Predict the 3D structure of the following.
Amino acid sequence: MIHIEEQTYEIIDKSQLIEKVTQKKKDGCRLVQISCTPLENNLEITYTFDKDYKCSHLRLSILQEDACLPSISGVYLAAFAYENELHDLFGIKVTDLAIDFKGNFYKLSVKAPFSPKTQNKVEQ
Amino acid sequence: MAKRTVVPFGPQHPVLPEPIHLDLVLEDERVVEVIPSIGFIHRGLEKLCEIREYPEMVYIAERICGICSFIHGQTYCQAVEGVMKIDVPERALFLRTIWAEMSRIHSHLLWLGLFADGFGFESLFMHSWRVREKLLDIVEETTGGRVIFGTAKVGGVRKDIDNLTLNRIKGELKNIEKQCRELTSVFEKDDSVKRRTKGVGILKKEDAVALGAVGPTLRASDVEWDARKLGYAAYSKVDWQIVVEKDGDCYSRCIVRCKELYQSFNIIYQCIEKIPDGPIDVKVTGSPNGEYFARTEQPRGEVIHYVKANGTKNLARFRVRTPTFANIAPLVKMLEGCELADVPVIVLSIDPCISCTER
């Protein structure tokens, strides 16, 4: 039996982020996670929400050069952990963070190890 | 206003098997602010998808955590199966459910022991782990491992359990269940347990939702949400109800886990009754192309495995959001206003798994 959960993706612009996230909060959605996927020239950021077992994603793309995002921790406080993770692993600058660890959320020997710019290749 | 003092809690502390650090801002003995720090042992396992082919990544996924290893492997497989639209045989789905619920039972028994140890009830700690050993014997018999099960694979499972063995295991589980009832009655009724846990570390329903709590931490705050209700594996084929408690304190979180033990036993019994005969896996060929967020319920709560694939043997991205990561913000909230002496009990009450969080 194939179990595939129905999930919706909404592609948005960075300038719409706070407005869209605020609407999700008003709709009673729970913030599930925030993730980042490096693409060729961009970083794809996915914000996942859940309401009544229905999963929905907000997705936006930012340039790898000077990657910057507004924080949604003013709407969902729990986002501070995910956003500090984005900063420490991918080198994304997140503005107006509710709790900013300033690069000390993870204690790493390599700065932004998951960023394509870091050229931190895993070796066999 | 009393003078404020900052007391560091962790990363090394008697109640913490793994490192997490909290800066506790105190006014006298009362905690007024908490700043959490993690990341002492971050491993970057997700990045291994660059050199490991997607069928091999299940071994990496299983090694994210030693307690809920099987469910990590299962969730990873479900994510790849979601991308590749793989029709997993029904017997494999029932076997996955049986092993997942065994994981839940042994994880909850482990936690009950640690929790008892956290408030100084040593004999209760030893009883919990003694009972857990009997369950681990069954896990070892059916999978070959006590920590890493190694039975999940993309397209099904690696091992079968014959029906004769399943029925014998059912009898052994009934015996373990009986011992669990004696054990959990102490957690439910003992006065010293209640004094250390009732009314301590309260997380209100609205805060639990707003701060993204998951698992028993969420359900103890009167929120009826359990990822197993999504109906993956064989959960849609068995009859079970979500365990919910109302008070949102450490005692409620303990009682949710106690009740979930019996729910897990019941799910396994039903699976043994209903498991169909047939193959346990399908041959998987080709490479995945696409993306999928798979969600399952671990002992500590909802876990997410995200895979993005580009048609090659190596995934473009593998990302795991673990339940403890989601429960960090709720933990900060439940610590605010508590007494310093209650901090270890409250921290333990979310069942923190730093190994998962530092995947």
